[in-house]
Design a protein that fits this description.
Blueprint lengths: L3 H37 L26 E2 L5 E2 L8 H8 L10
Antiparallel strand pairs: 1-2
């Protein structure tokens, strides 16, 4: 009888082999799907799938500024660390809403 380690090694080898075969078959499967969609005039929306727009990594949109500091500094009031000027205003006991744009 095979040991646990031997069976795990066999399972990993089979999974690697299955992944290689999947990658080899993938291009043909995609081509077949595209051909069938063209043949029947189908769109992605017809399939009930909404296309997902992906933003490039590292490109976040900035939130619009909601507050302007005493020296013209801007802050959106979002999550994260508060700017030093906001900390100073709050430490003085002032209301941050007085600086709302």
């Amino acid at each position: 009888m095979a040991t646990y380690s031997e069976l795990m090694a066999q399972a990993q080898a089979l999974m690697a082999q299955a992944e290689q075969v999947r990658k080899q078959e993938l291009a043909q499967v995609i081509a077949d799907i595209k051909t069938t969609m063209r043949q029947y005039g189908l769109t992605v929306e017809d399939l009930g799938v909404t296309p997902v727009r992906v933003r490039p990594a590292g490109r976040r949109t900035k939130a619009p500024a909601k507050y302007r500091g005493p020296n013209g500094e801007l802050w959106s009031g979002g999550p994260g660390r508060k700017p030093e000027w906001v900390k100073a205003i709050l430490a003085e006991g002032k209301d941050i809403e007085a600086y709302r744009i």
